[in-house]
Amino acid sequence: MGPAPAGEQLCGAIVEPEVMEPALEGTGKERKKASSRKRTLAEPPAKGLLQPVKLSRAELYKEPTNEELNHLRETEILFHSSLLRLQVEELLKEVRLSEKKKDRIDAFLREVNQRVVRVPSVPETELTDQAWLPAGVRVPLHQVPYAVKGCFCFLPPAQVTVVGSYLLGTCIRPDINVDVALTMPREILQDKDGLNQRYFRKRALYLAHLAHHLAQDPLFGSVCFSYTNGCHLKPSLLLRPRGKDERLVTVRLHPCPPPDFFRPCRLLPTKNNVRSAWYRGQSPAGDGSPEPPTPHYNTWVLQDTALESHLQLLSTMLGSAQGLKDGVALLKVWLRQRELDKGQGGFTGFLVSMLVVFLVSTRKIHTTMSGYQVLRSVLQFLATTDLTVNGISLCLSSDPSLPALADFHQAFSVVFLDSSGHLNLCADVTASTYHQVQYEARLSMTLLDSRADDGFHLLLMTPKPMIRAFDHVLHLHPLSRLQAACHRLKLWPELQDNGGDYVSAALGPLTTLLEQGLGTRLNLLAHSRPPVPEVSWAGSRVPRDTKDIQDPPKHKDSGTLTLGLLLRPEGLTSVLELGPEADQPEAAKFRQFWGFRSELRRFQDGAIREAVVWEAASMSQKRLIPHQVVTHLLALHTDIPETCVHYVGGPLDALIQGLKETSSTGEEALAVAVCCYDDLSRLLWGLEGLPLTVSAVQGAHPVLRYTEVFPPTPVRPASSFYEPLQERSSLLPRLDKPCPAYVEPMTVVCHLEGSGQWPQDAEAVQRVRAAFQLRLAELLTQQHGLQCRATATHTDVLKDGFVFRIRMAYQREPQILKEVQSPEGMISLRDTPASLHLERDTRQLPLLTSALHGLQQQHPAFSGVARLAKRWVRAQLLGEGFTDESLDLVAAALFLHPEPFTPPSSPQVGFLRFLYLVSTFDWKNNPLIVNLNNELTVEEQVEMRSGFLAARAQLPVMVIVTPQDRKHSVWTQDGPSAQILQQLVVLAAEALPMLEKQLMDPRGPGDIRTVFRPPLDIYDVLIRLSPRHIPRHRQAVDSPAASFCRGLLSQPGPSSLMPVLGYDPPQLYLRQLRVGPKQLNDPGEGTSSTKGHMVMSRGEELVMVPNVEAILEDFAVLGEGLVQTVEARSERWTV
Amino acid sequence: MVARRRKRPARELDDRIPSPPGYAAIPIKFSEKQQACHYLYVRAHGVRQGTKSIWPQKRTLFVLNVPPYCTEESLSRLLSFCGLVQSVELQEKPDLAEGPKESRSKFFHPKPVPGFQVAYVVFQKPSGVSAALALKGPLLVSTESHPVKTGIHKWISDYADSMPDPEALRVEVDTFMEAYDQKIAEVEAPQGRPSTASPVMVTRRGWGRRPVLPWTEAASLWVLERERRKCAQKELLNFYTWQHRESKMEPQLCKKFEEDKQRVELLRAQRKFRPY
């Protein structure tokens, strides 16, 4: 092997003290070693729980050792914080290759080398005469057109060289690839081989012969073809060892020409090397016009010639600097988490290494920098430099014969020249890929600057798959349609250049078209990079069927082209595309762009302009305008019909749509209710005759913060359906009718102005409040003619069909409830359940409601996300464990702390991220901080985290911290229990990949409700209810086709009696059931354990066992009329 | 398992139903239709010497395990076969101190949803208790003549009951507040009004209650804090060499570093450093 000794030196240079394998089980051992220093810490964290650190005074003030001082100084200079340094070190340990494995790989490489050199040669034949190939061997290349001049003979490679990241020590696990360059002997090649794909044909034949011989060798577990960077003209041969090392390494063989065979001046981006006469069988239209340049073709040839010089450059620059190598490894992880490096035209690890070299040569990076600093500098550079406009070059010479940067900009969208000045390293990278890289770099930079505590995790450990990163996604399928599109867009020169790869040829114009059309609605458009196919050359040895050998993949086989749209919420509200005035010259261009959708319109200011108007009435339809734009433009300009465009933007909307309306996801209905509430609060403000005036009216109901799953509709009860109770002017449900429609009153808290007249006794305050409730009802009826009903704790008001429940609040009441007098007469304040409850309902809940209401104004998608999340949790039958507010706060966290993403602009992506958050968040060791209104400073958040650790044992399982509620996590105090939370985590972890798979399926998402159906097999008893008495029967995930009449009129009826409020038999039934089983589980002290139990003699002694049979019968008795059957899965009972 | 249990009570009914020591068991069912029974465990109410109990000894029957659908009325009816029942009190837990409360306002203290309860049944004569202990059963809570509402029936009637009469509420509030005002007036009055029986001390401010701040915890804490601050001002800082040295060191950093190490250790244990 060529520079192998040098490579071994390189390997030797990065000997690492840590060995991978023992590190996994060796944590215990390390601990023992460490225990001498930190005795207090030595106990392993109990059950994965972080313990608050307690250090004695002596340890706190111990003089640091020299070593520690050095370490600290390094950390201070080279890293952000010591935590980050530790994390980065751990990550590098995880991705780096161990010495042991390197030895095994080296041995394998030596074997490969021996075998490749021994492959027998073949006599010379014409290129078109491929009869010498053994039967069944296919050439891994589309030979179109087939006829080409030249001769081919096989000779063993002149030189076998290992190139690429393996030698540099920057390759990362898993998927270790070792690139091996095979220099073809000069005898194989002839002059003018650069023309008309001759070189590529020879290269492919060379590989085919090689593969045929290597496949018969027992050393290899699999031998198959792939394509270098997805370029279909350049196959490479993948070799994997047989046996247990099969997953360890993939060796890629790249044939390359002898050095200095091609003259670089023939391969400039302005030159043509694929003649139209040959490629299309005709000379270009209009004789005399020059042949179109073939920049991509030229680049592919040049790439093969430069393999070794690139390696030399990289090893001189990175060779001795460990920090730079770490940086490259980190950057590769960063790219990979964002799926930027894979596929055709990806921003590969090689590009990043070259970028580091560039930054070193421009002195933006110094060789002593740490990996973290390298990462930061590269991201900073990417974020601020637009290579699509200002290309960069590694070439230092100012030779006038070198091509100008402008030439490259003309031919390629992204320009980054190598040290020779001839080769554009970013030739395959499309502009939108680069913009995506830039966008990600910008996001990462803000994240790094924001001093967030877990920046490391968000930056390097969180995967960003397309479906979770982009608001809407669209699949183009089948891809063969793009061929027609290429013809429509007149992309023949590009096809010629790309050797017929119509996907790559059409990608650029397609994205430009859509970007222009979506305009202000769009933040970023990204496309998936077609995956690099692997053509199986069959895994097993001879004899093998010809079936195993596949033809080279066609372009349409690369599956689907997926485009991701990151929307801009402010642009989404408009249904109008405003064009130029009709008499302007640009008007024609506008008309041409939009086709028949462009209309002349007269506007209010008198202007007559071209304009496009999209049909969208509701918020959810407006969110889907991009769908209309995309299908219209694709059909108009590229002939891609609507059936080939699979737009995934709103399949989940169906779950939060109302019954009758399928056009809206409820934002409008919620807004109507909020409007009505605003009217009511105005009435309350202006109310005359109350002893104290109203000082504040605050909403305290999910409807009033836009997070009620099913928005309320105005109630118009049909009087015949109810039992009227005239003296209370109310309606009652009737026995002989189905259960009436469920009406939930919306809670409103009403504060009164301060006064010294209030009694200072809890019982008396209650009575005075009741008096206020009565008075309020009277006044509202007298002054505004509203139907009211007062009780001791609230007043129900019927207004425009909505029912509000007004609660009077006295701000000192919680304090009165807290007061405890000690025997000496000292008054101290102690939290009691009653005071906490009251404080929660009258103080914290209104604050939360208004904060989330504000959030909805900022992020219009919040409502949809929160409602989908709640819908899912409740559909999984876990709703009871989680309060409404806690789920709303989790949804709010997705908007307030979206890193590493941006705040979601569609319910779909928000819901996916909700599932991701729920399934990955470490509730044991972290509080979920929801920084509403940005009130918490970074220092406060750090303080909260440490306070959390100290108080972990007293806090609930799930802790959500907000600026208003910094210590107690009130919304999760009463649940969920650890088991319920665990169940939710498990379900979310299962639902997420399933849903993502459905949404990424180009054939349509299928049944989207699958993840919403709960698993029933985990339950011991199933109680089936009669739909007649379930008022919300139609809201089931699988909505029944028909249900019962619920006594509602479509028009306002004459009756103005108070409708039946909050009457939901299943809820009432559940409340009763919950009391029973809770007692059953009570361990009980003394006699209380008899509850629901019976005594049995088991052997000699008497034992208490739950009286299961009688309890099951109780279930039926308690729910008489509602319960259809009680199914006990008796085999599961183990009492 | 269920099948096995179904046979057992049937066999045991013949001789004697097992019960906790000291208790007798009475099977109880909701109605004829049910097959399995719950068991009331009953005992004569008795307390140790010296313990106070508001329930009359000898005449009181203590009942455990009363099913949720069993109301006070139905229990009274069921046990009236043993003797005239004076009162029935259902409670969440056995409790000696609380007696039959003066009826709490139904507006302000709504009844909680019942589960299994305990009951104190007071008979008019002690013979009732012994008769009840010998009761064989099974008792039926709901019969043709005295149906007990459950399910939909119960919820509808509960709904109707939940709508209070505003007039009744008003009257209750008024009476309570009158009583309250009177009580307040009584507390304040004795100091305010000179009585002829005792001599009055005449002060500069005139006679009457001196306005004093109530003694609260917050106030005393504030006083303590002020004392502490005073002490801190007097203390010498950076006087000794070790004080000087320590003031330059940052123990918080040391602590944070240890915390970070622990965090990383935990993540490593959870294999959280494998990026994909």
TrEMBL record, chain A:
Bias type Basic residues, positions: 30-39
Location relative to the cell: Chromosome; Nucleus, Nucleolus
Transmembrane segments: none
Residues in Nrap protein domain copies: 178-317, 324-462, 468-638, 653-857, 859-1014
A Pfam family reported for this protein in Swiss-Prot or TrEMBL: Nrap_D4
First-listed, main subcellular location of the protein, grouped into a coarse class: nucleus
Region (Disordered): 1-48, 535-555
Cellular component aspect of the GO annotation: chromosome; CURI complex; small-subunit processome; UTP-C complex
Biased composition (Basic and acidic residues): 542-555
InterPro entries on file: NOL6/Upt22, Nrap_D1, Nrap_D2, Nrap_D3, Nrap_D4, Nrap_D5
GO molecular-function terms, A-Z: RNA binding
Gene Ontology BP terms: rRNA processing; tRNA export from nucleus
Keyword list, A-Z: Chromosome, Nucleus, RNA-binding
PANTHER family the UniProt entry points to: NUCLEOLAR PROTEIN 6 (PTHR17972:SF0), NUCLEOLAR RNA-ASSOCIATED PROTEIN (PTHR17972)
Family designation: Belongs to the NRAP family.
Quaternary structure and partners: Part of the small subunit (SSU) processome, composed of more than 70 proteins and the RNA chaperone small nucleolar RNA (snoRNA) U3. Interacts with RRP7A; required for NOL6 localization to nucleolus.
Function: Part of the small subunit (SSU) processome, first precursor of the small eukaryotic ribosomal subunit. During the assembly of the SSU processome in the nucleolus, many ribosome biogenesis factors, an RNA chaperone and ribosomal proteins associate with the nascent pre-rRNA and work in concert to generate RNA folding, modifications, rearrangements and cleavage as well as targeted degradation of pre-ribosomal RNA by the RNA exosome.
Record's protein name: Nucleolar protein 6
Biological source species: Rhinopithecus bieti
Automatic annotation (TrEMBL), chain B:
Pfam families to which the protein is assigned, alphabetical: RRM_Rrp7, RRP7
UniProt entry tagged with the keyword Protease: no
GO molecular function: RNA binding
Keywords for the protein's UniProt record, in alphabetical order: Cell projection, Cytoplasm, Cytoskeleton, Nucleus, Phosphoprotein, RNA-binding
Rrp7 RRM-like N-terminal domain sequence ranges: 22-79
GO terms for cellular component: cell junction; centrosome; cilium; CURI complex; cytoplasm; nucleoplasm; small-subunit processome; UTP-C complex
Annotated ranges, domain Ribosomal RNA-processing protein 7 C-terminal: 162-276
Membrane-spanning ranges: none
Subcellular location, record wording: Cell projection, Cilium; Cytoplasm, Cytoskeleton, Microtubule organizing center, Centrosome; Nucleus, Nucleolus
One record GO biological process: blastocyst formation
Domain of life: Eukaryota
Subunit structure: Part of the small subunit (SSU) processome, composed of more than 70 proteins and the RNA chaperone small nucleolar RNA (snoRNA) U3. Interacts with NOL6; required for NOL6 localization to nucleolus.
Role summary: Nucleolar protein that is involved in ribosomal RNA (rRNA) processing. Also plays a role in primary cilia resorption, and cell cycle progression in neurogenesis and neocortex development. Part of the small subunit (SSU) processome, first precursor of the small eukaryotic ribosomal subunit.
Family to which the UniProt record says this protein belongs: Belongs to the RRP7 family.
Protein name: Ribosomal RNA-processing protein 7 homolog A
Gene source species: Rhinopithecus bieti
Gene: RRP7A
